[in-house]
């Protein structure tokens, strides 16, 4: 039996749960400065996309596209940044970040530019609710 999927504590602490897609657990980064979603494939001991089997890679790409479309629909952003960095958190996770030409980090990457500003509870709940209507969340 393969090892069970567990969420890395850093991801759990820095984000809010939205729900599960077919392959990935979806979370909202708790930074109101940037609408930012995180997909975490529910596979144990995986740190790179190339470590997923081919079927899972296909599903992950489909999920990235669906999450990207939902975020663009909700925010009307100028650009979507999609990245699987993992320099700080080794568990495979993919960031989908809505970027705006007027955001505080534009045009640079968001990391290290401005301190995170947590969501007000009602604002996060509303965004999560809207995402759940646009995506096949379980």
UniProtKB/TrEMBL annotation:
Descriptive protein name: HIT family protein
Source species taxonomy: Bacteria, Pseudomonadati, Pseudomonadota, Alphaproteobacteria, Hyphomicrobiales
UniProt keyword annotation of Nucleus present: no
InterPro entries in alphabetical order: HIT-like, HIT-like_sf, HIT_Hint
Keywords from the UniProt entry: Methyltransferase, Transferase
A Pfam family reported for this protein in Swiss-Prot or TrEMBL: HIT
Domain HIT: 37-106
GO MF annotation: an example: methyltransferase activity
PROSITE patterns per UniProt: HIT_2
């Amino acid at each position: 039996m393969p090892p069970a999927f567990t969420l890395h504590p850093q991801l759990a602490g820095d984000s809010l749960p939205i729900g599960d897609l077919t392959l990935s657990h979806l979370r909202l980064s708790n930074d109101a400065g940037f609408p930012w979603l995180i997909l975490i494939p529910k596979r144990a001991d995986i740190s790179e996309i190339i470590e997923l089997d081919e079927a899972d890679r296909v599903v992950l790409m489909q999920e990235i596209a669906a999450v990207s479309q939902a975020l663009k629909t909700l925010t009307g952003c100028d650009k979507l940044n999609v990245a699987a960095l993992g320099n700080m958190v080794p568990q495979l996770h993919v960031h989908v970040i809505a970027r705006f030409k007027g955001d505080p980090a534009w045009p640079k990457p968001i990391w290290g530019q401005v301190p995170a500003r947590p969501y007000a509870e009602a604002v996060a709940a509303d965004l999560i609710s809207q995402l759940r209507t646009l995506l096949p969340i379980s």
